[in-house]
Amino acid sequence: MAEVIVVDHPLVQHKLSWLRDKDTDSALFRTLLGEVAMLLAYELTRELPIGMTEVHTPLVAMQAPRLAGKPPVLISILRAGNGLLEGVLKLIPTASVGHVGLYRDPETLQAVEYYYKVPTDIAERDVLVVDPMLATGHSAVAAIDRLKKDSPRSLRFLCLLAAPEGIEAFHAAHPDVDIVTAAIDERLNDHGYILPGLGDAGDRMYGTK
Hints:
The chain is an alpha/beta fold. The chain has a single domain (4-206), classed as Rossmann fold. 33% of the residues lie in helices and 32% in strands. Helix 5 links the parallel strand 9 and strand 10. The longest helix is centred in the N-terminal third of the chain and has 19 residues, at 26-44.
């Protein structure tokens, strides 16, 4: 069974508190989101395969660990996923990038796909999916559903905040995919937003409504 991994590192929690603050402006919000993403990515990438290669230090040759095989693929769920994507890319600059475009139908709260573009060799790679909020879980489930059709080597999901309802829906659909998050909040409100949450991550990133 998959895990839900909450990264409770003090720096993650400190930065998350600034992200929650309604007075944090868009520029600082984007900076903090990237910084938290980089910290979360340490946990997200824990299971990446390692191989040994010969390295010559200034003193001697040795066998040293390096990532094995092709670099992972980072998949951003548009549009808010791009805020996390930039932070993870700083940690894994050799990663390839794909995008899944989804929007939430305001009546049904279901995810509707409008864009899908991933590397052609995704079946040979580990895939790390990023999206700030796991609220109802509909977008994340739809993105993983779509990605599984291309048979990636492995899948993991990174989010900034998760609601219990979203976790339940996600693992009901995908019990084999780990979730890495900075916090599990209390619940969803009637409009499908996480409480206490931080509002709409995409709007706060880009200064839109």
